[in-house]
Amino acid sequence: MKLIARILMLLWFLGSGGAFAQSSCGFFDPKVTFVDGTKACLSEFSFFARKGLITSPEYADYLAVAKANSSSYAIAAPATPERCPFVQFTAWNWAGQDAQEALPKCNQRMQDASRASKDFANCRCDVLIDSGVSKLSRPELTRRLGAYEHFLATGATQEQTRMAEVRKEELRKEEERLAKAKKDLEEQARIELARQDQARRDEERKRAEQTSKPPVIAQPTVIQSFPASLELADPSTFTSKVALVLGNSNYSGRWTLKNPSNDAKAIAAQLRSLGFDVMLHLDVRVNQIGDMLAAASQRMKPGGAFVFYYAGHGLQLRGDNYLPAVDANIRTQFDVPTQSLSLQNVLSLADESKAELRLMFLDACRDNPWQVATRSMAGGLAKVEPPKGTLISYATRPGSVAEDGDGTNGIYTSHLLKHITTPNLPVESVFKRVANDVFRTTNGRQEPWHEGNLRGEFAFVVKR
Questions:
Q1: Strand duo 31-33 + 315-317: pairing
Q2: SS3 of residue 201 by DSSP
Q3: Which residue(s) pair with 89 in the sheet?
Q4: Domain boundaries, the chain
Q5: N or C of the chain: less Cβ packing under 10 Å?
């Protein structure tokens, strides 16, 4: 009996290859031999004991298959599990054709899975173990099993999980950027409100000082810029001739306009030929507005002529007119003052410079794409009361919208270019001719409008 016992122990030791003498792997437990010749017990890998992956009623897991078919079975699964979904097929029989059966059926399942996502288009299966032999090393098998476990636990491949983390980090950074931009805009708004408040206090102080002074007998006002006779004044009459010309075409999103940049360039060239010092700005951004107005203020002189031209989107908020920057992101009514050029600021600029002639051309009544931001924002521009010596020409009536036009220039600007250099034609008559031409061209859909008054008569070209 002792001899028989020794023989059985020797057979057990040889069957296990001597490698399992110190482990819990028994004589009849399934084993695997790796590509480098080393061996391990399948039970060392918890994945092979996972329930529910094999649907055959005879077997509950891979260990059971391997134990019952130690001489003939094959397990096939994804070859690149980091980026491919987990599918599997296990075949076992006594004919020795297990791998030839398992691999194509696993690939068929992979093709079915790839139809759900183009990310899996190049995924293929591979045979992990064939009758206890693997062409993988132990670290490679361990790595693949970990990837299978990841997919079964999360429903996503490791690559999908990584990309989701990358997108999450990018979203976090974008949210931080937007928060910083919002904070910067709020700070700009605070500074602007503080400046306006200081200007109001300074104006109140000046009025208080004026009322405290003894009354002064009024003297007749002498206007140097316009001649005393009924003769027409032209640009040469004035101490300075400054023109601020803006054209906004390339707005963010789908609000791009075709003609404003072309319109602004054409008007700028025309005014330069008439002797004006032209400041041309195309596609004005939010951070350019302050510097642009400051530069214009430095060039303007008392007794001078000031021409302002704008083409692009315009909107009104509570009766005030605003010309949004091309990068404006207007979501609520509170974004409007901080992301637009205020028409009132342009009027104040001309007033503070003591310019004698102030002409404004606003081809800015195109449809307002930001009306959804607030009910307080109406279509078109609002009617304003310009100060004395100021004449404003709108591309259409207050509250209406104008057409951008199909040609190189907008409808309003193309007719303005035609009439502005007509010799000895007062500017009020220029406006009337432009209005008549636009009305006829649009079959009455658009009618330019002007308001204000000049202290004399002015024509851009005078021939005596």
A1: unpaired
A2: helix
A3: 76
A4: 10-156, 166-203, 232-452
A5: N
Residue bearing the bigger pLDDT, 222 or 105: 105
- Neighbour-count burial of 333, counting CB atoms closer than 10 A to its CB (0-12 exposed, 13-18 middle, 19+ buried): middle
Neighbours of 296 (CB within 10 A): 21
First to last CA, the chain: 141
- Alpha-carbon distances of 265 from 248, 284, 447, rounded to whole Å: 11, 14, 24
Residue 54 CA to chain centroid, in angstroms?
50
Q: Which residue has the higher pLDDT, 68 or 221?
A: 68
Task: Please count the other Cβ atoms lying within 10 Å of the Cβ belonging to residue 289.
Answer: 21
Tokens (6 digits) for 226:
């316009």
Q: What is the pTM of this model?
A: 0.51
- Ranges of beta strands (E only) in 97-210 are 125-130
pLDDT digits 0-9 by tens, 286-343: 999 999 999 999 999 898 899 999 988 888 887 788 888 988 888 888 888 888 899 8
Q: Are 77 and 125 in contact (CB under 8 A)?
A: yes
Q: Which of 216, 235, 233 is nearest to 305 (CA)?
A: 235
- The tokens of 372 are what? 């959804």
How many whole angstroms separate alpha carbon 27 and alpha carbon 72?
A: 18
Reading the block at residue 47, the tokens are: 């994945």
Give pLDDT tens digits for 120-171: 888 999 999 999 999 999 999 999 999 999 999 998 999 989 989 999 999 9
Candidates 3.40.50.1460, 2.40.128.110, 3.40.630.30, 2.130.10.10; correct CATH number of 232-452? 3.40.50.1460
